Each structure stands twice: as structure tokens, then as C-alpha cells.
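task queued by scheduler; priority normal; single chain, no ligands, no partner chains; default sampling; output format set to C-alpha cells
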Amino acid sequence: MTGVRIQALFPEHAEQVLGIYQAGIDEGNATFETRAPDWAAFDEAKMPGHRFVALDDDGGRVLGWIAASTVSDRCAYAGVVEHSVYVHPGARGLGVARALLDALIVSTEEAGVWTIQSGIFPENTASLALHARAGFRIIGTRERIGRHHGLWRDVILLERRSPVLT
């Protein structure tokens, strides 16, 4: 993909990253969250070695971001992370999410992570298709797992097992 540079996500990206996160929240099919966290909460929740931004040619505009979080502090789950990926509405369909996902896969495999997982609303068909193309598989559906804007929502659970580490 030309015109996009993937690099580590730093505090100077915070405003744009959180703005993209809020745009995804506002669309209604990305997360149960209703408001993006402040930078301190985001920073604390995301693993430092596994968060990236996609920047435009000039390096000033964030087109999207990806970040991983631990799923448990139990040692048995040390190789399992959960991720989120969000793309600016104006940059969708350009391969930004796939480039970000590829960067996350490389960083997690280098760190010994054997499973990346995610939960996606079934209505988010673009994200489901992206993840399938990147080697994720559906492992189940959590039916009516939570209420979102007054409606019960299902969440499809996906995972990618590293072929290098399993």
C-alpha cells in the first residue's frame, strides 16, 4: 500500500487516535463503549509494544490505529492478547486496517504471543471480512452478551493462532 506509513503509536498521536476511536463508537457497531477514554486510561490499558498508527504520506495525519491488551494476568494466558483496530472514516477501503493488523501480527509473534483474539458485532461485516483475510477464525458467538443503546447485542469471537508459535 502506498501513501501510508505504519509506526509505533506515541502520546503525540493521542488526540487523533481518540478522535478516530470516538468516530467508531458513534457509528454504533464497533464496541459497547459509548465514549472514548482519556489518554491516561487508553495508555494504561494498551500494551506498549503492540500499538501502532497508520500515518499519511506527510506523517501528520493519523489514518488508523491498532492496539493490544492483555486478556488476563494469569501466567497461562501470557501468550494471548485482545486487540482493537479503528480506521478514520475517510481512510476506509484503502488497506489501512490490514496494514495495521499485519504490523500487530509481526510484533506479537516476535514477542511470543500465540493467540490474538477479538470480539466483533455481527453487523460489522467489513471487520469480520478483514479478520478472515488476515487468518482469524470464528470460534463462537456470545449471544445477547450485553445491552448497547437499549438493545441486546451478540458478539462474534475470533482468534488468530500463530502458525509460528503453535
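post-processing summary
- The CA atoms of residues 64 and 86 lie 5 Å apart.
- Helices lie at 14-27, 39-45, 96-110, 125-133.
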